[in-house]
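User: Working on a comparison across species. This one is Nitroreductase domain-containing protein from Flavobacterium limnosediminis JC2902. Can you predict its structure so I can line it up against the others?
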Amino acid sequence: MSNFIKHQNWRYATKKFDATKKISDHDLEILKEAIRLSSSSYGLQPYKVIIVENPELRAQLQPVAWGQTQITEASHLFVFANIINLGDKEINKYIANIAETRGIPAENISGYGDFMKSKITSLPEDVKNNWTSKQTYLALGNLLNAAAELQIDATPMEGFEADKVNEILGLNALGLNASLIATVGYRHEEDATQHNVKVRKSKQELFINL
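Assistant: Here's the predicted structure for Nitroreductase domain-containing protein from Flavobacterium limnosediminis JC2902:
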């Protein structure tokens, strides 16, 4: 745990990446597995994660991401896209996955599926979309923490035009919406912000004990 805190102090939202340094395939698989194992409500994982390496696509994305240079300079770009208007289809697929993974009849857990449907599918579409978007933040947290453990830099981003990102990546046709972006790679030695002291609220200000 002491190393975890040490690595959290080491990490920061990298402003300038070294475009010559790439994440190894081995480390990329660890980051992907960390995202895959993230917690989510009901375990549904109501999102997809698009990993963009194609330099032409990333050049198209940069202008709609407020011109941020990390989009093109980082080793990899992760786009967390929430499922739009999630419904019975996704829940049924999840129930089938549980049954197969745990080796149990699907009918044994049909009640759990019905419970999820009663809580989710009747919600207004905008409420559902807001909820599935929030789930991507949990996955992002796992990515940031895993990257820090590997001494890989990462920058979470909300500064982009989601509709334009959706158009460029063809997400609309997939029933997805770009919720978050994270650029991942290695900090450039010229990135002066890496030397800034981390600023956070004190424990006394942040926590309330009842």
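For your comparison, note: The chain is about 45% helix and 15% strand.

User: Helpful, thanks.
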